[in-house]
Design a protein that fits this description.
homodimer; 145 residues; alpha+beta; HIT family, subunit A; five-stranded antiparallel sheet; 3 helices; 27% helix; globular
């Protein structure tokens, strides 16, 4: 089996690009800055299903996604989660939270209804995340000016 | 600063023991099998605040906690989360989920009210987790029969 992104994840997100292990996506929900990392491996549901080498890369990509979100104005806390109760394909969320945001202090998953970005706003944010996330250590892009 | 467990985490959990990096706790909530890992480092709020070597250990301890929970009867999915909106000390949840459980398919955090274990049940579960989690690769216990 080869990796294929779950169509529900594709429908809810904008693609940023591929890091060393994961496909990086931006959730199409303007309530929060929200990245999703999907390891490009087939048939995974749990972090424990990855081998040890891939897990070491995953936690670095989680840290990098967290820092990219944390750098945005107003972000006070990062919520990292791998749930998969609905979409079983292993995916890890990194969500920027602010006191008083739409779900505060509860979790964002299942809370309310997504507010879609205007296309121009989504494109600008994706471009910014692409520059930050794929600038260094991203495997494919390493050494490319 | 030295590590000190946040008193709110201590009040809601039973202590299992110390792994290589984290203190392992069992949430005192009989609705779900639920472990919490707290890196024994001072002044951390985010996974990205750990150094790279500690992150590599953390993801292995998350995988180990996930497997310990997954081995219990009826567990269909593991939810891993590091939120910290209320308790800022970095801590990572590994929660065993089953279709139809008290929060299904939503997240467990902030959903309903904890149902405390009877003391004898908590002690038996903690004992089981201690044997599984501290059997191997746990640093302090390595090589001890």
């Amino acid at each position: 089996m080869t990796f294929a992104l779950d169509p529900r994840l594709a429908a809810d997100t904008h693609e940023i690009g591929d890091l060393g292990l994961c496909r990086a996506l931006m959730m199409d929900d303007a309530r929060y800055p929200w990245l999703i990392l999907v390891p490009r491996r087939a048939d995974l549901a749990e972090i424990a299903d990855l081998d040890r080498a891939d897990r070491a890369v995953l936690i670095e990509e989680i840290a990098r996604a967290s820092e990219a979100v944390r750098a945005l104005p107003g972000v006070e806390k990062i919520n990292v989660g791998a749930l998969g109760n609905i979409v079983r394909q292993l995916h890890v969320h990194a969500v920027g939270r602010t006191a008083g945001d739409a779900a505060w202090p509860g979790p964002v998953w299942g809370a309310g209804v997504a507010r879609r970005y205007a296309p121009v706003a989504a494109a600008a944010l994706v471009d910014g995340f692409r520059r930050v996330l794929m600038r260094e250590g991203a495997g494919k892009s390493r050494g490319v000016a």
